[in-house]
Amino acid sequence: MSFWVAAGFDLTFASDWTWLWVMEIVGAVSNSPGNTKEYRVMKHLITRLLREDDGQDLIEYALLAAFLSLVAAGGAVMVGTSLDTWYQNLSGTIDGMAATP
Protein backbone atom coordinates (compact mmCIF):
# COMPACT_ATOMS: atom_id res chain seq x y z
CA MET A 1 0.00 0.00 0.00
CA SER A 2 1.37 3.38 -0.96
CA PHE A 3 2.03 6.15 1.52
CA TRP A 4 -0.71 8.37 0.06
CA VAL A 5 -3.38 5.68 0.17
CA ALA A 6 -2.36 4.79 3.73
CA ALA A 7 -2.64 8.47 4.64
CA GLY A 8 -6.27 8.49 3.49
CA PHE A 9 -6.00 9.96 0.01
CA ASP A 10 -8.36 8.65 -2.61
CA LEU A 11 -6.17 9.02 -5.67
CA THR A 12 -8.84 7.82 -8.08
CA PHE A 13 -10.29 11.32 -8.25
CA ALA A 14 -8.58 13.98 -10.32
CA SER A 15 -9.08 16.62 -7.66
CA ASP A 16 -7.13 14.56 -5.12
CA TRP A 17 -4.29 14.12 -7.60
CA THR A 18 -4.39 17.82 -8.46
CA TRP A 19 -4.08 19.21 -4.98
CA LEU A 20 -1.56 16.56 -4.02
CA TRP A 21 0.57 17.55 -7.01
CA VAL A 22 0.29 21.25 -6.15
CA MET A 23 1.16 20.57 -2.53
CA GLU A 24 4.30 18.73 -3.58
CA ILE A 25 5.30 21.61 -5.83
CA VAL A 26 4.91 24.25 -3.13
CA GLY A 27 6.68 22.01 -0.65
CA ALA A 28 3.87 21.90 1.87
CA VAL A 29 3.63 18.10 1.95
CA SER A 30 5.46 16.70 4.91
CA ASN A 31 5.85 13.17 6.22
CA SER A 32 2.40 13.42 7.77
CA PRO A 33 0.09 15.00 5.20
CA GLY A 34 -2.94 16.81 6.54
CA ASN A 35 -1.16 17.93 9.70
CA THR A 36 0.49 21.08 8.43
CA LYS A 37 -1.35 24.37 8.22
CA GLU A 38 -0.06 25.03 4.70
CA TYR A 39 -1.33 21.66 3.55
CA ARG A 40 -4.84 22.25 4.92
CA VAL A 41 -5.00 25.78 3.52
CA MET A 42 -3.82 24.71 0.08
CA LYS A 43 -6.21 21.75 0.01
CA HIS A 44 -9.09 24.06 0.94
CA LEU A 45 -8.16 26.60 -1.74
CA ILE A 46 -7.78 24.02 -4.49
CA THR A 47 -11.01 22.29 -3.49
CA ARG A 48 -12.82 25.65 -3.68
CA LEU A 49 -11.23 26.38 -7.04
CA LEU A 50 -12.37 23.07 -8.49
CA ARG A 51 -15.90 23.10 -7.05
CA GLU A 52 -17.05 26.71 -7.12
CA ASP A 53 -18.21 28.25 -10.35
CA ASP A 54 -18.78 31.84 -9.22
CA GLY A 55 -17.71 34.25 -11.92
CA GLN A 56 -17.99 31.68 -14.67
CA ASP A 57 -20.88 33.52 -16.29
CA LEU A 58 -18.90 36.77 -16.21
CA ILE A 59 -16.08 35.14 -18.16
CA GLU A 60 -18.57 33.73 -20.66
CA TYR A 61 -20.06 37.19 -21.22
CA ALA A 62 -16.59 38.67 -21.65
CA LEU A 63 -15.71 36.02 -24.25
CA LEU A 64 -19.00 36.62 -26.05
CA ALA A 65 -18.37 40.40 -26.09
CA ALA A 66 -14.85 39.86 -27.46
CA PHE A 67 -16.17 37.57 -30.19
CA LEU A 68 -18.90 40.05 -31.15
CA SER A 69 -16.40 42.90 -31.31
CA LEU A 70 -14.19 40.86 -33.65
CA VAL A 71 -17.17 40.08 -35.86
CA ALA A 72 -18.18 43.75 -35.87
CA ALA A 73 -14.65 44.83 -36.78
CA GLY A 74 -14.52 42.30 -39.61
CA GLY A 75 -17.91 43.44 -40.85
CA ALA A 76 -16.82 47.07 -40.77
CA VAL A 77 -13.77 46.25 -42.89
CA MET A 78 -15.90 44.39 -45.44
CA VAL A 79 -18.50 47.18 -45.59
CA GLY A 80 -15.71 49.75 -45.93
CA THR A 81 -14.21 47.86 -48.87
CA SER A 82 -17.61 47.55 -50.55
CA LEU A 83 -18.34 51.25 -50.06
CA ASP A 84 -14.93 52.19 -51.47
CA THR A 85 -15.60 50.09 -54.58
CA TRP A 86 -19.08 51.62 -54.96
CA TYR A 87 -17.74 55.18 -54.66
CA GLN A 88 -14.93 54.43 -57.14
CA ASN A 89 -17.50 53.14 -59.65
CA LEU A 90 -19.72 56.18 -59.04
CA SER A 91 -16.74 58.47 -59.53
CA GLY A 92 -15.88 56.77 -62.81
CA THR A 93 -19.48 57.11 -64.00
CA ILE A 94 -19.57 60.81 -63.15
CA ASP A 95 -16.19 61.40 -64.82
CA GLY A 96 -17.50 59.59 -67.90
CA MET A 97 -20.59 61.80 -68.01
CA ALA A 98 -18.51 64.95 -67.65
CA ALA A 99 -16.22 63.94 -70.53
CA THR A 100 -19.15 63.28 -72.90
CA PRO A 101 -20.48 66.51 -74.55
What does this protein structure show overall?
By secondary structure, the protein is mostly helical. The chain has two domains: 3-51, no CATH class; 56-101. 75% of the residues lie in helices and 0% in strands. The protein has helices at residues 3-6, 14-26, 37-51, 56-99. The longest helix has 44 residues, at 56-99. The protein is rod-shaped. The mean pLDDT is 76.
Summarize the structure.
The protein is built from four helices and no strands. With 101 residues, it is mostly helical.
Strand share of the residues? Answer: under 5%
- The rounded distance between the terminal residues' Cα atoms is 102 Å
Q: What's the order of the H and E elements?
A: HHHH
Radius of gyration: 31 Å
How would you state the average pLDDT, rounded? 76
Summed up, the domain count is: 2
Shape: rod-shaped
In DSSP terms (H or I, runs of 4 or more residues), the helix count works out at 4
Helix content range of the residues, please? Answer: over 70%
Structural class: mainly alpha
**Beta strands, count:** 0
Oligomeric composition of the shown chains: single chain
Q: Biggest β-sheet: count, sense, barrel?
A: none
* Low-confidence sequence ranges: none
